[in-house]
């Protein structure tokens, strides 16, 4: 099947952001008629690479070749016209418009006087939809479709042009098994037409089912490419994790205290069901699973941001109803949220004001906010967490990701919580800050905090957590202890396979 | 190097642009008319800006919290009519607190709808603009309201009185501005207003009660409106039903001119006061050099757009938008 | 999916349901309260109602496409007054004295051109500076009003051209000129929103601006066109209105923006953009005029109209919000 000419070739691509080298001299070839898997941990640089290919970012160095012709892409439309089609993980559809209008967004066929040529539009769209074997037609309003079908509309967009290369970014994240099979048929179809396909996924099962070759990125660097037929899950995992393997386990070096928080049969609508676990003082409990497995929703429920549909939460052995974040804070729970930019920080405020926000009512001198107390608190945590900023007046939005995250952590540490929940503590921050934050989490546990760490990165949970809860689609599959945890077990558990 | 210098100039202009504009206007008018900088004239500017200014103080809170209030004009008409009517029925000492309570009731209703029910503030206050106007007309029966015995009451004190030679409306404006300025800049409540307006999700994730904060902002706005209504009623001792009509947008213009972003999270009381004064001085300056009052509309238009444009140019680092 | 479908149809047809309720209510209440013997749903009554709704209605049609596009225009009242002044004043300009009644055509064209230019200026500023349309048009609401005053100070501009008045008062097939213009406006702009590339792109931009930009749609020019269109329609509304009355007060058209937005929102258009229809707006305009006429018919005064209208707007918003909350699934923020 595999032909010898590359449909898409990258040579020495470099992309730097302030403080991070997101892509470091990446070279890669995708042959025409080949399904090429691109794998790597979160933060390895996959999404940056895809944005460079999709015309959203401009590379700082390096060249992209489409069918061996060097191209420069100034925007996504440009990329599409040059033969690279990108199917986004996040949907970018206009919900009020019809399927056909979305498929041909920006390129509606015209008649005289600027009229839309509906007949051609619907015919061409229905033709594409027939290839995708979907149950809706071109006239359906996109907002009325399920998420899976909306994903199919995104895919349909790729088929409007004569694509040389199509990039799928986690296309099956919201698809049912039957829909996946249709998608795989579409991919097969494209493949037989000589299109080069880049397929990004964390799901090993899919990789082995449909791809011809696997390339791995790690820390922004290209590792290796291997034929899928010649490799194994273990080998790929090793390439992805690489040198991190040696820090797989951090030993429990201190005595555990009382149970700080216990959750019994907690459920919340469709998000998660019958979740039970407990965390002791001095312990780090890790939650590992795919995006959408219900981990973040558990954290939000514990912090009073969601209403549980059933179950109980016990703090220090006492049943507690947590109906708002204010109550959670009073009961000694802190949450470092998943998305620091939209949930963790007021980006337009300065560093100090962000850090003191949850306890602003307690920072008073008379009726006024005490400037001195605020600055003292900020200075304390700036030094303790080594936050690099010109001063507290600096607007938080201007700091690097790592320093922003430290501000959020400082904000919640300064509340002296009993239970600290950290959701994706190192998402999108550089390697140096990452290890500092990992060390900090271990230290916090050692000083008696009960810590819950939610992460999509396996090395991270393996490194910081004493026990690891594996979740799949809203349920706890198994809680691993240091005796029985292996990477294989974890990967299987979060794919929904119960270990024996 | 030159680039850096230009960027710095842009930043300074972005941050202090409104102050610079203020000074420029003062200089131009002072050169054009020797009377402009006289104490008498300055006093008359502040006095005539007091009603707009008092209302703008309250709207500043609402705008910083990330919302709008288009109902302040018709709410001011309401307060004016109610206090004039009650003056003859209950006497001034009962009429004033009653009017304040009724106005706060209206503000509280808006605060409840926007804060607790999370309805869009533009449409809610648009609806309230119309509803309160209707309420005022129903209350007055469509007639103008007048105090019967204009000489025999101390009610004129708030609009026409003086303390130590200073007109009472100015004192009320300055006192309210000082109080609200401190409330916004120096207290935990003020910090919460900025946080809710800057990023309401992050504020909720920090345990800050978004709904209560927004609700309180509308109460503050209503309190200011009631005070403006009191000054208006006391100054004229009689009023039409539509006395505040159209003021909502002028007030908003003053607040925006002061640099508050409609997205919320930025602005200060002092800047709003400067915005109000700029509008007042333009009006007054044009009058002194003999230009008709409506030229100020055109000038206001131009400086509002320039001010906001400059502000976002600094943020995006270039003058022209790329859309 | 099914309940989504029902909800959406419910919210778009709600305005017509409301109109039916109004008709029934005023007909029945009128039996007991009415001061005249004429039935509420009398043909003459209804025709008059349509005529009266034309000035606001024509502007509301333009506001719909501007709001669908994700913008807003607060300056329509001032453009309305400006176009009215140009219309009436130019009728007596001496350079046109030789062309007899053809001056009417010239004056109408001048007025419409004024509207297009003022609207396009708003659009150009929004496009090129990136300043929010709310602020740009809040400013030009003041600025354009200033221009209106510059023309004739605080004096009204009057000019009664009897040919023009006859045209305004004429009826074709029993329907007033104003109603015909309103109807044609609705039809044409509806066709634009439904069947042209520009119209569909306007929806796409308001719905998901990033997606539109990524798909290569030029956002700025589309906005400019829509602002020019609403300027044109505000001027058209002025032509229809002042042809008959013959006198413009410099304060005319104040608060029109608020009435227009009320009608558009009642008709189901979302402030956030991307959603709304011309037909819904037609419903909103008629509903408001029915309310005014109906309350007058049963003897209530204008104050009640304002009160009821404001409360209805809030109730509609509340119901819309209830239909759109995701219930227990929603994060409590």
Description:
The complex is a heterotrimer of chains A (500), B (323) and C (333). Chain A has 500 residues and is α/β, with parallel strands linked by helices. Chain A has 17 helices and 22 strands. A six-stranded mixed β-sheet of chain A has the order 6-7-8-3-9-10, sandwiched between helices. Chain A is globular. Chain B is mostly helical and 323 residues long. Chain B has helices at residues 2-32, 39-64, 72-90, 92-116, 121-140, 157-160, 168-186, 188-198, 200-205, 210-236, 247-257, 269-288, 295-316; strands at 145-146, 162-163, 166-167, 238-239. In chain B, a hairpin with a 2-residue loop joins strand 2 and strand 3. The longest helix of chain B is centred in the N-terminal third of the chain and has 31 residues, at 2-32. The radius of gyration of chain B is 20 Å and the shape is globular. With 333 residues, chain C is mainly α. Chain C has a single domain, classed as ABC transporter involved in vitamin B12 uptake, BtuC. Helix content of chain C is 74%, strand content 2%. Chain C contains 13 helices and four strands. Chain C has helices at 2-33, 43-68, 76-90, 103-129, 133-152, 162-169, 177-195, 197-207, 209-214, 219-245, 256-266, 278-297, 302-324, and strands at 157-158, 171-172, 175-176, 247-248. In chain C, strands 1-4 form a two-stranded antiparallel ribbon. The chains are: A alpha/beta (500), B mainly alpha (323), C mainly alpha (333). At the B-C interface, helix 5, helix 9, helix 11 and helix 13 of B face helix 4, helix 5, helix 10, helix 11 and helix 13 of C.
């Amino acid at each position: 099947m595999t032909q010898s000419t590359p449909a898409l070739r990258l040579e020495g691509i470099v992309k730097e952001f302030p403080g991070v080298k997101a892509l470091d001299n990446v070279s890669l070839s995708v042959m025409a008629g080949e399904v090429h898997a691109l794998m790597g941990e979160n933060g390895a640089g996959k999404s940056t690479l895809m944005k460079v290919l999709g015309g959203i970012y401009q590379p700082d160095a390096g060249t992209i070749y489409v069918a061996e012709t060097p191209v420069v892409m100034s925007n996504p439309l440009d990329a599409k016209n040059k033969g690279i089609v990108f199917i986004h993980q996040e949907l970018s559809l206009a919900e009020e418009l019809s399927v056909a209008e979305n498929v041909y967004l920006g390129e509606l066929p015209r008649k005289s006087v600027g009229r839309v040529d509906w007949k051609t539009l619907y015919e061409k769209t229905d033709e594409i939809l027939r290839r995708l074997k979907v149950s809706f037609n071109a006239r359906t309003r996109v907002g009325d479709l399920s998420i899976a079908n909306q994903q199919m509309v995104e895919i349909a967009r790729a088929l409007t042009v004569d694509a040389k290369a199509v990039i799928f970014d986690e296309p099956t994240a919201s698809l049912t098994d039957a829909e996946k099979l249709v998608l795989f048929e579409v991919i097969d179809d494209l493949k037989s037409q000589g299109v080069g396909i880049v397929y990004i996924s964390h799901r090993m099962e899919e990789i082995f089912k449909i791809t011809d070759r696997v390339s791995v990125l790690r820390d922004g660097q290209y590792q290796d490419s291997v034929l899928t037929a010649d490799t194994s899950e273990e080998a790929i995992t090793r390439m992805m994790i690489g040198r991190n393997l040696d820090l797989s386990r951090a030993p429990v070096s201190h005595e555990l205290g009382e149970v700080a928080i216990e959750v019994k049969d907690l459920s919340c609508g469709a998000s998660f069901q019958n979740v039970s676990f407990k965390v002791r003082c001095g312990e780090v409990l890790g939650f590992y699973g795919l995006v959408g497995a219900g981990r973040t929703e558990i954290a939000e429920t514990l912090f009073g941001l969601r209403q549980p549909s059933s179950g109980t939460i016990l703090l220090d052995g006492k049943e507690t109803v947590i109906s708002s974040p204010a109550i959670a804070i009073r009961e000694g729970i802190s949450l470092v949220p998943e998305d620091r930019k939209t949930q963790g920080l007021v980006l337009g405020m300065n560093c100090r004001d962000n850090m003191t926000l949850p306890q602003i009512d307690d920072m008073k001198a008379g009726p006024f906010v005490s400037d001195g107390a605020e600055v003292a608190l900020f200075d304390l945590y700036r030094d303790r967490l080594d936050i690099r900023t010109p001063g507290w007046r600096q607007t938080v939005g201007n700091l690097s990701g790592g320093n922003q995250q430290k501000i959020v952590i400082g904000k919640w540490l300064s509340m002296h919580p009993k239970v600290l929940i950290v959701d994706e503590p190192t998402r999108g921050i550089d390697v140096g800050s990452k290890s500092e934050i990992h060390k900090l989490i271990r230290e916090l546990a050692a000083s008696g905090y009960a810590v819950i760490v939610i992460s999509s990165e396996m090395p991270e949970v393996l490194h910081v957590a004493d026990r690891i809860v594996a979740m799949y689609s809203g349920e706890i599959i198994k809680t691993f202890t240091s005796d029985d945890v292996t990477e294989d077990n974890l990967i299987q558990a979060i794919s929904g396979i119960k270990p024996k | 190097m030159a680039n850096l210098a230009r960027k710095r100039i842009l930043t300074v202009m972005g941050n202090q642009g409104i102050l610079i504009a203020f000074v420029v206007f003062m200089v131009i008018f002072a050169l054009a008319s020797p009377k402009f900088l006289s104490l008498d004239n300055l006093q008359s500017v502040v006095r005539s800006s007091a009603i707009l200014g008092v209302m703008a103080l309250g709207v500043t809170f609402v705008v910083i919290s990330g919302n709008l209030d288009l109902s302040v004009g018709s709410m001011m008409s309401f307060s004016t009519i109610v206090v004039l009517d009650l003056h003859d029925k209950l006497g001034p000492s009962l009429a004033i607190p009653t009017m304040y309570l009724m106005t706060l009731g209206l503000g509280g209703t808006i605060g409840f709808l926007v804060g607790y029910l999370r309805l869009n503030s533009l449409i809610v206050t648009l609806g309230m603009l119309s509803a309160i106007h209707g309420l005022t007309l129903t209350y007055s029966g469509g007639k103008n309201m007048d105090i019967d015995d204009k000489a025999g009451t101390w009610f004129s004190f708030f609009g026409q009185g003086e303390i130590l030679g200073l007109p009472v409306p100015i004192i009320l404006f300055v006192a309210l501005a000082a109080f609200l300025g401190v409330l916004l800049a120096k207290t935990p409540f003020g910090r919460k207003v900025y946080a809710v307006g800057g990023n309401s999700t992050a504020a909720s994730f920090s345990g800050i009660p978004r709904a209560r904060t927004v609700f309180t902002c509308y109460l503050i706005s209503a309190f200011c409106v009631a005070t403006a209504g009191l000054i208006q009623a006391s100054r004229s001792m009689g009023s039409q039903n539509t006395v505040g009509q159209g003021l909502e947008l002028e007030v908003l213009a003053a607040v925006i001119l002061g640099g508050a972003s409609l997205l919320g999270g930025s602005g200060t009381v002092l800047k709003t006061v400067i915005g109000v004064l700029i509008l007042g001085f333009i009006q007054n300056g044009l009058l002194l050099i003999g230009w008709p009052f409506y030229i100020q509309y055109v000038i206001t238009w131009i400086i509002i757009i320039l001010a906001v444009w400059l502000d976002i140019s600094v943020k995006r680092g270039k003058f022209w938008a790329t859309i | 999916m099914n309940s989504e479908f029902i909800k959406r149809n419910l919210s778009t047809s709600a305005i017509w349901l409301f109109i039916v309720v109004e008709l029934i209510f005023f007909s029945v209440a009128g039996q007991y309260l009415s001061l005249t013997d004429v039935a509420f749903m009398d043909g003459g009554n209804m025709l008059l109602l349509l005529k009266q709704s034309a000035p606001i209605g024509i502007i509301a049609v333009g506001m719909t496409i501007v709001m669908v596009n994700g913008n807003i225009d607060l300056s329509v009242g001032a453009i309305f007054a400006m176009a009215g002044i140009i219309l009436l004043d130019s009728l007596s300009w001496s350079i046109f004295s030789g062309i007899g009644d053809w001056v009417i055509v010239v004056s109408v064209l001048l007025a419409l051109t004024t509207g297009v230019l003022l609207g396009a200026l708003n659009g150009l500023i929004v496009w090129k500076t990136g300043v929010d349309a709310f602020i740009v048009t809040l400013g030009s609401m003041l600025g354009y009003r200033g221009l209106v005053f510059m023309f004739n100070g605080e004096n009204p501009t009057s000019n009664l051209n009897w040919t023009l008045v006859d045209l305004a008062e004429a009826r074709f097939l029993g329907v007033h000129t104003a109603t015909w213009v309103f109807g044609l406006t609705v039809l044409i702009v509806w066709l634009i929103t439904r069947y042209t590339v520009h119209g569909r792109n306007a929806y796409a931009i308001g719905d998901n601006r990033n997606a539109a930009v990524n798909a290569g749609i030029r956002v700025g020019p589309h906005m400019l066109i829509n602002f020019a269109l609403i300027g044109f329609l505000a001027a058209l509304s002025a032509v229809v209105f002042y042809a008959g009355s013959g006198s413009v007060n410099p304060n005319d058209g104040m608060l029109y923006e608020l009435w227009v937005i009320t009608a558009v929102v009642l008709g189901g258009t979302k402030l956030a953009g991307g959603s709304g229809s011309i037909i819904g707006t037609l419903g909103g305009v008629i509903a408001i005029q029915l309310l005014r006429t109906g309350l007058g018919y049963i003897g209530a005064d204008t104050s009640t109209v304002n009160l009821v209208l404001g409360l209805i707007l809030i109730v509609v918003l509340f119901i819309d919000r209830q239909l759109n909350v995701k219930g227990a699934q929603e994060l409590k923020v």
